[in-house]
Amino acid sequence: MFLVGLSGGIATGKSTVVAVLRELGCAVIDADVIAREVVQPHFKAHQQIVRYFGTEILLENGEINREALGNIIFSHPEKRQLLNSITHPEIQKEMLKQILKYFVLGYRYVILDIPLLFETKRLTKFMKYTVLVYCDPPTQLSRLMKRNGLSQAEAEARVASQLPLEEKRKLATHVIDNSGDRESTRRQVLRLHARLEDSLDFLWARLAAGAVVAGLGGLVYLLLRHFIS
Ligand SMILES: CC(C)(COP(=O)(O)OP(=O)(O)OC[C@H]1O[C@@H](n2cnc3c(N)ncnc32)[C@H](O)[C@@H]1O)[C@@H](O)C(=O)NCCC(=O)NCCS
Ligand SMILES: Nc1ncnc2c1ncn2[C@@H]1O[C@H](COP(=O)(O)OP(=O)(O)OP(=O)(O)O)[C@@H](O)[C@H]1O
């Protein structure tokens, strides 16, 4: 089994790409979804967030007010660091559990959608491939402003809280450019999927070649033993 890391910048289109991969039957683990689960009331991370950020970041029902917490952490790097140090270990534990589940179910590769994959450098070494969902910076900004109802300054602060896309581009093994329409992105995802499947055939071919070499070696050994004795 191998792992494929999928990342991007904020609002560059990771979820849009993941929707197509899921349609194609791929196993995908979404770090943003897990990040929402691990901060539900009664979880350890929830208590720690309230301890450090105060009850003013809670909604009336006790859940985290994500908008309020976002406004704080995207404009204060040290508070963002603190939130990351609370949530990231919990997110990674849950991701590991889900990887094991897919392994047991017999999936041959799992795609991990991790927004901060390239920022959290030690994670990339577990990935056979890394996919960057890219879109040009003006498009990224306008999609983010529109989707989250943010001002230009607010959207820029969120983009600036991550490694620049051009840096991530250099680190990724594959790039999907989502600057165009959804159809163009879909075609690129289909190509990526075909490559992942080909790479599986390649792995099986290597395993088969290994088995043949081992078999031949065994045969030569038996023949030698027979003729020598
Ligand atoms: C700050 C929070 C409350 C904002 O919640 P909200 O529902 O508005 O956004 P959502 O969770 O859907 O995230 C949207 C995008 O914001 C970006 N983002 C989220 N957290 C961070 C962060 N700590 N640093 C940089 N970018 C981030 C990612 O690109 C992500 O895809 C939330 O993102 C959060 O709890 N973040 C900390 C956990 C984290 O690092 N999540 C990212 C996945 S590992
Ligand atoms: N090719 C496209 N054409 C037009 N709009 C798009 C396209 N791709 C994505 N969008 C829109 O841009 C916004 C961001 O896309 P999406 O939610 O897929 O990004 P994301 O990277 O998953 O975001 P996040 O960083 O919040 O996780 C959404 O409102 C989505 O509908």
Secondary-structure map with pairings?
Layout: E1 2-8, H1 14-23, E2 27-30, H2 31-37, H3 44-53, H4 66-73, H5 77-104, E3 109-113, H6 121-124, E4 129-134, H7 137-148, H8 152-160, H9 165-171, E5 174-177, H10 182-228
Helix pairs in contact: 1-10, 7-8
Adenosine-5'-triphosphate (ATP) binds at residues 8, 10-16, 32, 115, 143, 147, 178, 181-182, 185.
Describe it:
The chain has 229 residues and is of the alpha/beta class. The chain has a single domain, classed as 3-Layer(aba) Sandwich (Rossmann fold). The protein is 62% helix and 11% strand. The protein has ten helices and five strands; from the N terminus they run E-H-E-H-H-H-H-E-H-E-H-H-H-E-H. It has a five-stranded parallel beta sheet, with helices on both faces. The longest helix is centred in the last third of the chain and has 47 residues. The relative contact order is 0.17. Bound molecules: dephospho coenzyme A (COD) and adenosine-5'-triphosphate (ATP). The site of adenosine-5'-triphosphate has 16 residues, from helix 1, helix 7 and helix 10. This is Dephospho-CoA kinase domain-containing protein. It comes from Calidris pygmaea. Keywords: ATP-binding, Membrane, Nucleotide-binding, Transmembrane, Transmembrane helix.
